[in-house]
Design goal:
The protein has 110 residues and is of the alpha/beta class. The protein has 4 helices and 5 strands, in the order E-H-E-H-E-H-E-E-H. Strands 2-1-3-4-5 form a 5-stranded mixed beta sheet, with helices on both faces.
Length: 110
């Protein structure tokens, strides 16, 4: 509708975080995206139901600094998988903002 009206939205030059979810964790993933954005992180996720592989392919095109994967098992444990600089680690959801702050995301873009 916006394109038909001739309205073009600006796209960021970089993305701090990309949140990938499974169908069972989409709502929680959207909440995580909101929390990250409110904390100042430029964050994206797929607005369509896609396989994890398709989401990671989309993330690769956007080239985020970090990819967060929220699977059902991780969510049930209160955790999220964080992929940063080729390494993957599990982080408590209630600590994710502090963890990402410590990584210094976006520092080179300031």
């Amino acid at each position: 509708a916006l394109e038909a009206a001739g309205i073009e939205l600006a796209k960021p030059d970089f993305i701090n975080c990309y949140v990938a979810t499974f169908p069972e964790t989409r709502i929680e993933g959207a909440r995580l995206v909101d929390a990250l954005r409110l904390s100042g992180f430029i964050t994206e996720m797929s607005h369509e139901v896609k396989s994890l592989k398709a989401q990671l392919k989309h993330a690769n095109k956007l080239n985020p600094e970090v990819v967060l994967v929220m699977g059902e098992g991780e969510f049930n444990e209160g955790k999220v998988q964080v992929k940063f600089n080729g390494e993957q680690t599990s982080v408590e959801l209630n600590e994710i903002i502090n963890y990402l702050d410590k990584l210094g995301l976006g520092d080179e873009n300031e």
